[in-house]
Structure formats: C-alpha cells, structure tokens
Amino acid sequence: xxxxxxxxxxxxxxxxxxLLAACGGQTQPQASQPAAPAAPKxxxxxxxxxxxxxxxxxxxxxxxxxxxxLIDIAVGDENDNGWNKAHLESTTKITKERGxxxxxxxxxxxxxxxxxxxxxxxxxxxxxxxxxxxxxxxxVRYNSDDFIPCAEAMAKKFPDVFHDHxxxxxxxxxxxxxxxxxxMGAMEYTKxxxxxxxxxxxxxxxxxxxxxxxxxxxxxxxxxxxxxxxxCGKKLGKTIKAINLVVGFWFHIPGQxxxxxxxxxxxRALNADIxxxxxxxxxxxxxxxxxxxxxxxAFSFPYDYxxxxxxxxNSCGGIPYFNWDAEVNYILDAVEKxxxxxxxxxxxxxxxxxxxxxxxxxxxxxxxxxxDDAKKMVxxxxxxxxxxxxxxxxxxxxxxxxxxxxxxxxxxxxxxxWYSKKLIENTQAYGK
Length: 432
Description:
Blueprint: H1 3-23, H2 54-58, E1 69-73, H3 83-98, E2 101-105, H4 118-132, E3 138-142, H5 148-157, E4 162-166, H6 170-173, E5 180-185, H7 187-201, E6 206-211, H8 216-235, E7 241-246, H9 260-269, E8 274-277, H10 283-293, E9 299-301, E10 318-322, H11 325-337, E11 344-347, E12 362-366, H12 372-387, E13 397-398, E14 404-406, H13 414-418, E15 427-430
Parallel strand pairs: 1-2, 1-3, 3-4, 4-5, 5-11, 6-7, 6-8, 7-15, 8-9
Antiparallel strand pairs: 10-12, 13-14
Helix pairs in contact: 4-5, 7-8, 7-12
C-alpha cells in the first residue's frame, strides 16, 4: 500500500473515532440547572382589586331609617315647677336618648292670648312631622284631661298616628279608637301618704287644699288626701277637716279663675295650718313659706314635681310626685315594636320604692319638715298597702252629705274611685 493511501486511511479512522466520542458509546452526566425561584404569592394587599360587577357598581348607599316623632301637647309649660315640668322633662329627655324627633306646643289653655284650638294645633304638628321625617312613626302625647275631646277627634282623623292621652278615660268608657290609649299614675295612693304626714304635723286639724277645676280627677285626689289624713288622724286621736279650694282651672288665669292665694287666705282664716296642692303651680308651697318665714305654724304639700320642696324647705312636709320616664319609655317601645294597644293603663306605686325619689311612676318623698314620728306612721301605711292589709278608701267611708259610699270592711274598685262625684265626710268646698 502506498504511503499516500495509508495516510488517507489513518485520517478517516481518526475522524470516525472522534465522531464516536462525541455521540457516544457512554452517556455523560449533565450538570443540573438551578430551579427557578417560585413566584411569590400575592398578599391580600398586593392582589389587584377585582373589577366591580355591574350590579355592585350601580348599588346606592343604604338610607338611614326614618326618624320617629313625639308631639307633646301641654296645657302649661316648665315654669309651673309642677305637672307640666314633670311631663316635659321626661319627654324631652327620653326622646333625645332614643333618637326621636320632638315637636311641642305648650300653654294650650284658655288663658293663652293666641286662643289656640287643640285640633288645629295637633293637625299642624302632625303634618310638620310627616314633612320633616317622611315614613317615620308619629306619637301625639296629650297631658291634660282638658284634651279628652281633642285626642279622640285627632285619633279618628289620623288613624295612621298613635295617640297617648294622659289622665283620659276613653278606653275605660269604651269605644276608643284602636290608635288611642290612656295612661295615668295612681296618685291616689301617694296623696293618702301625704295626707297621713299632714295629720301628724297639724296642730289645728284643718287642711286647706287648693284645687283645679271641679271634676272627677280633682275630687278623687282631694278625697285621697283627706282620707289619708283622717285615717292616720284617727290613730293619733285627731279629728281632721279638709277644705277643697276650687280655683276653676289647673292654674290661675286672671279674670277667668279664682285666685289661689285668696282661697288659701280664706282657709287660713278658718284656722288651716296645712296647705296642700292639687294644681299645676306651687301656690300652696309659697303661701305656707310666707307664714313660716313670719314664725307661724304652717306646712305645705306641693304636687307633681319632685324638686319643688327645695323652694321652701322650712315648710315642706313632703311631695306626692310623678316620674313619667317609665311611661314614656313604655309607649315609645310600643310604637317602635308594633305592640301599641288601646288600653286604660294605671301605673300603681312600686311599693319597695314608693318613699324614694326613683323607681316608681308615682311616689311620695318626705320634705325637710316631716318629723320622725310622721315618717314611721307613713312607712307603716305604705307597708300595709303593699301587703294588702290596707285598701284604698277602705270602709266605712261616708260622703259629705252623710250617705254611705263604702261599707265597713269593704273597698271600692278603681272605677268607683276614678269617677268621684262627691267629696267625702268632714270636708267642704270653697270657690265653686
């Protein structure tokens, strides 16, 4: 073989071996590649916001619930420091606490120079409430028996509005509209406790009781004070006489009513040394204070508004009072929850609290002039009421004309007491 051919053959052999080495008879290990880092998980904050759906994009913010409204119709105003102030303090406080709207008309009485007509005022305020808070519920609260016809007429005219008449008897008589209710505190009990205190304090045995119009309400409260004084006076060996001084309205209206100060002066001339109140203003309290300031023996028993004794502590024997908070909350609850009903609801004393300033719609709180002996006697009377040992106007009780009202050992039902057509024995009336 020529040298040239040998060199060619050797070159081809080297080429074949090189190819075999590259492709291989033995597989070579490959270097492993580092794993790609995992993509970080998106946090809630880093997630892109989902696009709003069409429905969500069109949704409007929820509307606040319509406000309910309480409309106060008051025969007087806060300046009486009595009946009206007790009412208005409760209604303004409770409506504010509960987020109700509040409208009021005060001094709706014959002495108002504007000569307001109840039905016109109420209709105007109802329309105002509907305009101010469309869709809200409306409660009209009347605080005087002078408004009995008005409340019934408005309940019939506005059946979509709730009506709460204080001291009224629509439901008791029957036939009241379903949207009209009556509430009243059983002040008769606490008037008897005041009368009992008076019996302990009096030296003359004569009580002058300044009163409002001559009607069932004023007669039954006067009778209660007189009976309480007679009941405890008998235990003390005292004969008690009570004089009903009729003003003719719930407060003095010059030119239209009797002057309470003149009436109280007449009682003083008849030897009265106890001066009690059945009207909205505190005339009896001030009258007794003037006597006491001169060193004379005189004691007063104001009415309605708990702090009234503070105006004349030297003469105040105690005060039968109203605290309307529970009643206002009760009726607002009924309107809100749909449980409102037409009822004749009488709020009896909470006997465990009756001699304290809280925890009862009607109570009696001793004044600075009450003696320890008086307090003990009244506490016993309250305890006897609580246990049922004593009943209101427990017989025998006679009318002033000598006829029998309640026989011995018996007691009248509340309806008989409510409609008191006469005065009880050992009493007389002035100013009628």
